[in-house]
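Mods, move this if it's the wrong board.
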Amino acid sequence: MTANTNGRPAPLADSLHLREWRESRGWTQEQLAERIHSAVSTVSRMEQGKQNPSMDRLRELASIFGTSVASLFAPPPGYETDTHPTDAVPAAPSAAASITPESFPRDVPVYAMESHSFGDRDLYISAKSVGLVRRPPALDGVAGAFAIYVEGDRMAPEHNPGDLRFIHPHRAARPGDSALVELHPEDGQRPKVALGRVLRRDHSAITLCLHNPSQELYFPGEQVAKVYKILTDNDLFGV
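Not the wrong board. Structure tokens:
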């Protein structure tokens, strides 16, 4: 969801000056959508404050406009609106205007996964942490949260190689969710994990669906150590 309980747009989206930045470049919504490889409706919803952009999207927009993420929450320098000065109403200070990547602590461990084939299954071998990334708002105060870098293209375009994905250790993965399934390790080996969309799940087994090419992975319950939900942009930044 991108609106609060009073029906108003979420503060993050509501404070974004995307339309002003787009117009300052003389671009249409179609031209901006093409530059960020997204739908025109997505650009429109962000400009109307109806959709929260992810932090990755904010960084992409900042790069396209040649500015910082923080600057996107104010009109571009020299931008003039069509509102007459005498008609202007002073805007109330917004906490979201001070949101920058530096606002979030860099304390979430991120793991790189090594892709391997085991028979007819493409699985990953969990690797050690390769660093720390900034904690998104939805994971504030959540112990045990972690992130992964996607390896391989089996889940493209939903999860592309190199994409950063966050995991809430206590959020249940249900059918339709993207999930990371950790298997019980074999003797002396590192745990294997599978990334996919949950197709079916009950107490006895879980089945994941992969995209590219289409494949189902079935895991009996006794093989499964943990199932983690991969958080969506709405999970991370929606309210």
